[in-house]
Every structure is written in structure tokens, then in C-alpha cells.
């Protein structure tokens, strides 16, 4: 392995162990080695792809335009044609490419996975417009959340896979007595990859889960078929292209990473997952399809991340203003189109205690609405924080909820300073105590202020919902250490990652690679976790051979 | 942790890493600290249990005799009554016992698991007659294979669980900049056990898979419901009793380990596995039910070990006699009622090359039959090697195969020197080239000599059968290094552990804890492996909490 990549691997393994802050790449676009020229070149490359054929040399299939790809910023179809092959064809390609990769050493595979991450990073400015005009993210989030941060989650998975493979001793001499005789056996242990992996990615944040899945599979020796959401193919096609180039450049068959493009009308995921050669499924998307995958992937194993009812429990604070600014920020961030965005804000009916007295439920609602407005009604700020709405269905969903509670703040579009046709929406903030309204996930810019009998009831409902209906994150504000402790216990058992008393510049739902476990596997929000050992340990198996040591040592 | 147990844990972790030979307990009954007195006391304790109520203080349920328990040695029913409770009752018991155990430290749980192993070892001489008179094993195998060796597999699983939990950093301080501000978070990571585990054990070798499953579950914080095969309850009841005593002695609720006894007529496994509170299933038994478990355990996760078509590929040898003695020994060992016993012996049609010329297919058959006879027709030797036939169904199965090929050696009972009523049978050895005969698992004392076009065809068929129909072990004899290498490649991909050119005192299918991986998870013989990281890493999850470090550090 090159000295650079070897050092990076060591550093990633170490960061995963200490769980301290580290990143493989600078988060600031200004520190990208390509500079301003790279940004311009990236935009140019993106524009040259629109309405054309996406170049994937040697990829099976015939070109067909992905009609689902329509920019949330311009309303224009991207018109990119990708090679579309049958499920059988991509499997044939993957299986044909497999043997040399399966037989390559973990070192080789790991290095090439790290090289693919580098290639993706080098092309960050091509990924930025691709992510913006499919997922609807802002340019900044496209560069970091879907770029450097997502690559870090990928490298974290590579490090986890490396560590898991390194723990498998390759050779042993085993000696013991049988009766009066002594026997020595040479034993060899071999890492055998499981087989073809299908990686199903989502619409609004594809890269963040795709990279861990793709690289955990590749590092452990499995070919990967990427099945992108039909509305967000381009960023995945770019990632697939980068992987294929790196693999081919090292003499491997690029068929190790293929693209399976489908349409909403003729989805191909079930066929891919049900294929007899399918051995691993990584899925990010709706809870309903995630549950289907978990129940039906067998004999393949599955790793899922879906969504949930993330909650805020608001008990008390010295100063409520920064708390509400923090909560408002997380309701606005990418218009809450993230699986970590909070949805339900539980407030004791008697109000929130602060050092300057109790703030009533109504006052909390008004102040939170105002804090949101400070972001959502200032176009330049809104553009960088809320960005665009990925799917028209999200706006319809928000519309349909307006009369289901007391409107504290109505959803309203803002005028994007750069893209006048952008599909935008500030959050809808409703007060409701109806579990039929707040008790299921409503994906997008909508949040509920829910009155609870008291803080214990708030905690009870929020943690029970997390456990029973799924949640990835939870948030608690309290000046009472005992209550925070109880919240930690309750959400730990419910399987939601709890953030307590956080205010300030970090988005509440920021999840850091190497440090934050993402999804616990303890509730319906998913069965896998980025990145615990279980995320990688099942992707390969160990087989062994043994023979007498004396006469046949070789 | 006590110094002794801590040292033992360190040693087990080390042995699992180096994969060198080590055992926690001496394998020789003569070295048991209780001496001859313990042997007599054990037998007495066993006899006092027959026809009585099995003592499991505080266990839910009403006593009912397990009518399936009939000694293969005496033909007499054991008549032991165990507490029988409904599935709901045992789950209630397990769930009520869980919280304190879930909250206990990994250190505490690990130490108590090791203490339970010690308790079982202390009582070895009670387990010996219990194993003999249910599973039909010899006294020697009951002491080692089902005793010290099985406990070692249990300790191996404890060590694996310990290592997996130790890799989870409990606490970190995470610091990074956001814009011009710097933020520090205190992060805590918590191991959360998955929930109630059901351990389904088999008839002929229950302890060997039960201990790894029970202790992997307990060490990672999960309550365990043991569902023994209705014909082999007693050894599992003894193990459950030992665990309960150790747990209760340390102040934990003994309901953490319960027994779910059923009958062949009213089996309870599906109800236990389908229970809404079931989170983990460990299964050892038939391939058919194992496949059902794998497909239907969801939302529980499953770890299965079933059975397969273990093969011998006989290409060449300097001296064929010791090879055939070794193969004959493994056909005879416990009358091939082991999931590792070979069944199909592939021999090139042209014969086997040796340093003194080629031995024809027919001659190989004759010599192998004679080598078996040297064991199976000498009562004292047969008693210690073949032991008894666990189930009458096995004899019927062997009977039904007699006319499916050319009989090289007929199955014949031997007269057990100590138990005249013992159900015994030497192996049936048939020559056949009909895949309908040798192409499925025939559990018990039957083996097929299969002519192959040449050694490559032999290897091709044997490894394809392993991959497609399941196999745990494989055996190859060849003086040609290249051929052995090809066999290693073929069986590695097929997921069978290959032993090459082994002759001498070690039984071919001996599998050593800490050193030999048992089952690969790559073929239908099971999805789990003793003991890779995947065997333990999914039994717990990690949840986290985080908060600003400065103002709220505690």
C-alpha cells in the first residue's frame, strides 16, 4: 500500500477506536487542491453531461434516459442516458468480474477502495452540481454532507472492514498430544467474500449511506450492483464511474461495480434482491420497503437504514433562546429531508422552566416559529440552509397536514436568489396532541409541537415511539442532571442516539464519521449501524484448511 | 474479575488469536480434581434423578415427564419430569430477569459465564451419564467431546464476545471547529443487548453448540431460553441448572436462563421463535428446520448449524493403509452421528495411486471395509468408538439404504460389553454412483464409495455438493501438492473445512476450539461459524449519547 494511503488507513482505524474528530479531507471547498479552476471545470463537466450519454466504458446495457431525474432547482429534466441492462446481465457481469477480486489480498482491495475515495474527492466539484440537481441539497451541503463527510463514512467502513479482516489469523501451527503421540497441523485460514451485493440508495442523501455500503462490500471482496433511486441517479453514476476507473486502472474488471438504473414505474429492486446470486443487500429508503428487505432478503443478508420519529424533549434550560435557535436550525436544515431531522417536539403542558421563569407552551411555540422564520424567510440564509425540496410529493405531504393541528408557522416557499424556479419550502410547524398526526414519520419540512402532561410523560412517549416506530436521533434539553440521565437510559434502550443540551454552531443532527454511531439496529429505523463491527463482519466468511505440519509444510 | 478467571480470559483471547492448541480444562477424566469419588458421586446423582423431578428452583411451569428420553444404552425411559411452562411464561420470566443483567458490566457478565463453565466442569461426572443415556455417546466422548471440548467452545465464544465488547470505546471527547467556533462534546457509547435468545439444541451432540450459543448470548447481556431436543433434555437441564445457580449466587435473577421442554408431538420451537419478544435464535438440528429458521426468524437474527454432505477425495497416498484406517475411524466415530462425519468417499474409477502401485476401486472398497471391521466387530473397541445409536429412526434409515448400492460392508450391531440392550450399529458401506443415493445427507452410520471419472471429477462433484447441498468438513488425500492446492481452493469457495493427508491418532473430524472454525456460513450447512466475530457482533448493539463537554461534564 502507498505510504500515504497506509498512513490514512492507520489514522482512520485509530479515529474509529478513539472516536475523536478526524477527517480524511478538508471540509472547506476553498481548500480543495483543484482550487477555483476545479470548481469551474466541475460545473462545466456537469453541464456537458446534461441531455447526453453517461460514459461508463464496458458497462453492460443500452442507453436510456432516466426520466425521473428533474432538477429541484430548475425544474428541468437532466436528460442523462445511462446504460440499462437486465438484472441477469448485471449479475453476469458482477460474477464474471469477481474471481480476481475475491483472490486479491485485503491490502490490495483496501488500497483500491481508498484510491476510489480519493478519485471521488478529486472530482468533488462534479459531484456538487450532480447532488444539487437531483437531491436538492445546497452547494455547501453537496460538498460536505454528500462529499467529504460521506467519504469519511466510506473510509470509516473501509477501516472497519480492514480491522475485521486483520483479526483473522492467516496461519497457525497447532500441536497437541493424542494419547502418547503428538500431532502438529499446519492450518490456513482464508477470508472468503460472501458474493454479489446490491446497494439500494435513496433520493435525498444517497452518497452518505452508499459509500459505506459500497466500500464495505468491495473491501471485503464482494462485487457491487448500485441501484440508485430513479430521481437521483447521477451522483451514484459518478461514484460508480470513479470506482470502475480505479479498479480497471489497477487491472481489475470494472464489472465489479455496476449500475442498475430503473424507473418508478418499473422498479427493479425486488428482482435484484430476489436474484439467486444475491448475497448481500444494503438498503436506504422508506421504512416500508426496508421492512420488506429485512424480511425477504434471505438467503442474502441485509443492512438497512430507513427513517423514524426523531423527537426533542424540552424540559428546561437556563436560556431558552439559543435552544430554540438550535432546534429551529435542525428543522430548517435541508428542509428536514434527513433521516436525522427531528419531527416531534415534546413540551410539558405547564411550559419550559428557564432561569428567568417558566415559558408557557404557547410562548414556546411562538418563539420557535420566530426562530424558524429568522432562517426560512431570509432568502440567502434559506438558500444555504433549507436548499430545495427533492420531491414534489413532499410538498403535497406538507400541504395535506396543514389542517391536522394548530398552525404555529405555515409552510411557505422562499425565493431562491440564484434559481428562481427552485422548489422550496420553509417548515410547517403544527401544535397537536393527536398521535395519529405526530405518531408516524412525515418526511420533509414539517414538525409538531406536542404538549405532554409533564416531562416524564414527554420522555415516555418520545422513547416509546422511538422503540416501537423507529428513530435514529433524539434530543433533550434539561438543566436537571437526573432527568438527562433518565433520558440517556430511555433512548439507549429505545435505540436512538441522544444529543443533550446542545446549542451553538453545530447542527443538532450532525453525525460525525468515526465518532457517532448512525442507527442502532434496535428499532424499526434500520437493522444496521454506521459503523459497528456487525456492519462488516458478516460480509465475508472464513474457511480453513489443515494438514500435517511435518511432511507437507510448504 | 477473579485473578484466575481473568487469566483464563486473557489466555482464551490469546488462543483465539494465535489459534494454537489450548484448553481450559484437562481432557483426561483422571485429571478431574474430584477424582474417582466425583465419578461415583456423579453416577449416583444421575441415578437419583431417574424417574424423579428435576430440581430447578424458581423455574416457572409444572413438572411433566419428558417421554422422549429413552436411554440408547438400556432401552429404558429416563422418566425425568421437568418444569414445563408456556412460551409466554418463559418469555415473561426472561424479560423480568433481564434489566439487571442488561445493566451489568461486560466484566461481571463475562466472569459469571466463566464461573458457569467451571460449575459445569466440576459436575462433569453428572453430565457423562446424562449425555450417554440421551445422546448415546460413549463415556469418554461424553466427558471430552460433550464436556471439556464443548466447554472450550463455550469459553471461545465468551472470549469472542468479550473482545467484541472491549472494542467498543465507552467514552470520547470530540472536538472540532464549526466556522470560527470550537465545540467539544462528551460522548458516551453503551452496549445494549438485543433481547431474549432462544437456543434450540440437537439430539446427538447438544452441548457442543449449546455452550457457545448460551454463553455468547449471556455474555452480551441477553436472557436465554434453552429448547432442548425432546430426546435429549437432561444434559441441557443440567447446564441450565448450573447457569441458574451461578447467576442466582451472584444476586441475579435465575430466570435469565430457562428451559422450554416440548415433545415430538407438540413441538414448541416455532412458537418460541415466532414470539414477539424473540430477538435471537441459535439453532442446531436438521437442515430442513434450519432453513425454516433462517427464512422465518425475522425480526430475530439467527445463527444456524445443520448438516451436510461431507466428502473424502481419495487421489493418491504413499501408503494407503493408514489412510484407510483414518477414514474408517471417522466413519466409526460415534457411528457417524456427527455433523462433521464424512459420508461420501470419492475414488477415481482407475483406482488410487500409491508408492507400491495403483489400488483398484474394488480393492479400496474391500480394504476400507476391512479397516472398519477392525473397529466395528471388536466389542470393546466398538463400544468406545461407535458407542450407541441415538435414535431408532437412524437404524431404519440405514436399513432402507441397504439395497441402494453394492454392499461393501453391511451394517451390523455389536454386542456392547457393559449394556447388553444397547442400540448399536457398525457402518453400512455401499458402492454407488447414483447421486440420488449419495447426493443427500444420510445421518448415521452409512457411507458411500463413489467412483469418479478421475480425481478432478471427484473434486468437482465433492465441492459442488458441498456448496449446493451443504458441508462442514472435507477430506483429501493426495501426494500431488498441486492437487491439494486445487482442493484447498475448491473447498474454500464451497465453504467446507478441508483436512488433507491426515492419518494417525487424531480423529479426522476432530474440531478444536480456538483453532478450527466450525461451519463457514457459505453453504446450506448453516449460516454461523464457531467462532468468528460475526457470531457475537450482532448479539448486542451500540447506542450513544452526547452533550457539550464544557458545562455539563460529569
Automatic annotation (TrEMBL), chains A, B:
Residues 1-20, 29-40 have a biased composition (Basic and acidic residues). Residues 70-462 form the Aldehyde dehydrogenase domain. The gene is paaN. This is Phenylacetic acid degradation protein PaaN. Gene3D superfamilies: Aldehyde Dehydrogenase, Chain A, domain 1, Aldehyde Dehydrogenase, Chain A, domain 2. It comes from the Bacteria. The lineage of its organism: Bacteria, Bacillati, Actinomycetota, Actinomycetes, Streptosporangiales. Keywords: NAD, Oxidoreductase. Residues 1-40 are annotated as: Disordered.
Amino acid at each position: 500500500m502507498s505510504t500515504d494511503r497506509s498512513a490514512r488507513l492507520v489514522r482512520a482505524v485509530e479515529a474509529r477506536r478513539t472516536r475523536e474528530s478526524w477527517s480524511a479531507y478538508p471540509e472547506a471547498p476553498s481548500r480543495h487542491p483543484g482550487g477555483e479552476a476545479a470548481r469551474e471545470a466541475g460545473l462545466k463537466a456537469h453541464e456537458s453531461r446534461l441531455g447526453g450519454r453517461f460514459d461508463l466504458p464496458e458497462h453492460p446495457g443500452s442507453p436510456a434516459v432516466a426520466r425521473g431525474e428533474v432538477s429541484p432547482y430548475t425544474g428541468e429534466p437532466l436528460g442523462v442516458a445511462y446504460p440499462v441492462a437486465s438484472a441477469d446481465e448485471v449479475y453476469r457481469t458482477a460474477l464474471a468480474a469477481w474471481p480476481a477480486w475475491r483472490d486479491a489480498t485485503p491490502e490490495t482491495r483496501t488500497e483500491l477502495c481508498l484510491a476510489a475515495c480519493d478519485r471521488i474527492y478529486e472530482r468533488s466539484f462534479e459531484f456538487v452540481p450532480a447532488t444539487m440537481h437531483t437531491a436538492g441539497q445546497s452547494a455547501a451541503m453537496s460538498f460536505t454532507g454528500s462529499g467529504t463527510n460521506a467519504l469519511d463514512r466510506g473510509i470509516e467502513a473501509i477501516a472497519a472492514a480492514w480491522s475485521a479482516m486483520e483479526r483473522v489469523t492467516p496461519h497457525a501451527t497447532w500441536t497437541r498430544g493424542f494419547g502418547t503421540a503428538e500431532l502438529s497441523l499446519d492450518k490456513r485460514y482464508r477470508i472468503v467474500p460472501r458474493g454479489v451485493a446490491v446497494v439500494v440508495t435513496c433520493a435525498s442523501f444517497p452518497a452518505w449511506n452508499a459509500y459505506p455500503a459500497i466500500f464495505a462490500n468491495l473491501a471485503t471482496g464482494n462485487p457491487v450492483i448500485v441501484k440508485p433511486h430513479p430521481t437521483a441517479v447521477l451522483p451514484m453514476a459518478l461514484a460508480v464511474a470513479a470506482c470502475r476507473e480505479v479498479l480497471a486502472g489497477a487491472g481489475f474488471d470494472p464489472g465489479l461495480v455496476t449500475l442498475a438504473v430503473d424507473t418508478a414505474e418499473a422498479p427493479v429492486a425486488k428482482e435484484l434482491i430476489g436474484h439467486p446470486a444475491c448475497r448481500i443487500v444494503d438498503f436506504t429508503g422508506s421504512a416500508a420497503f426496508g421492512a420488506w428487505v429485512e424480511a425477504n432478503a434471505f438467503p442474502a443478508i441485509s443492512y438497512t437504514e430507513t427513517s423514524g420519529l426523531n423527537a426533542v424533549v424540552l424540559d428546561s434550560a437556563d436560556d431558552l433562546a439559543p435552544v430554540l435557535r438550535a432546534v429551529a436550525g435542525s428543522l430548517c436544515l435541508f428542509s428536514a429531508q434527513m433521516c436525522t431531522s427531528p419531527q416531534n417536539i415534546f413540551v410539558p403542558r405547564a411550559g419550559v422552566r428557564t432561569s428567568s421563569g417558566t415559558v408557557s407552551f404557547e410562548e414556546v411555540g411562538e418563539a420557535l416559529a420566530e426562530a424558524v422564520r429568522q432562517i426560512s424567510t431570509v432568502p440567502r440564509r434559506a438558500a444555504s440552509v433549507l436548499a430545495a425540496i427533492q420531491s414534489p410529493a413532499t410538498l403535497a405531504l406538507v400541504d395535506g397536514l396543514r389542517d391536522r393541528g394548530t398552525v404555529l408557522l405555515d409552510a411557505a416557499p422562499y425565493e431562491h436568489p440564484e434559481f428562481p424556479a427552485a422548489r422550496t419550502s420553509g417548515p410547517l410547524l403544527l401544535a397537536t396532541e393527536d398521535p395519529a398526526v405526530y405518531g408516524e414519520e412525515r418526511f420533509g419540512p414539517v414538525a409538531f409541537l406536542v404538549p405532554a402532561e409533564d416531562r416524564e410523560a414527554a420522555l415516555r412517549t418520545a422513547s416509546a415511539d422511538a422503540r416501537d416506530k423507529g428513530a435514529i436521533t433524539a434530543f433533550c434539553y434539561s438543566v436537571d442532571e437526573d432527568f438527562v440521565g433518565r433520558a440517556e437510559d430511555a433512548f439507549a434502550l429505545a435505540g436512538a442516539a441522544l444529543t443533550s443540551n446542545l446549542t451553538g454552531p453545530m447542527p443538532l443532527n450532525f453525525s460525525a464519521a468515526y465518532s457517532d454511531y448512525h442507527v442502532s439496529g434496535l428499532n424499526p429505523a434500520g437493522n444496521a449501524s454506521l459503523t459497528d463491527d456487525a456492519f462488516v463482519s458478516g460480509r465475508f466468511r472464513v474457511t480453513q484448511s489443515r494438514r500435517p505440519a511435518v511432511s507437507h509444510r510448504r
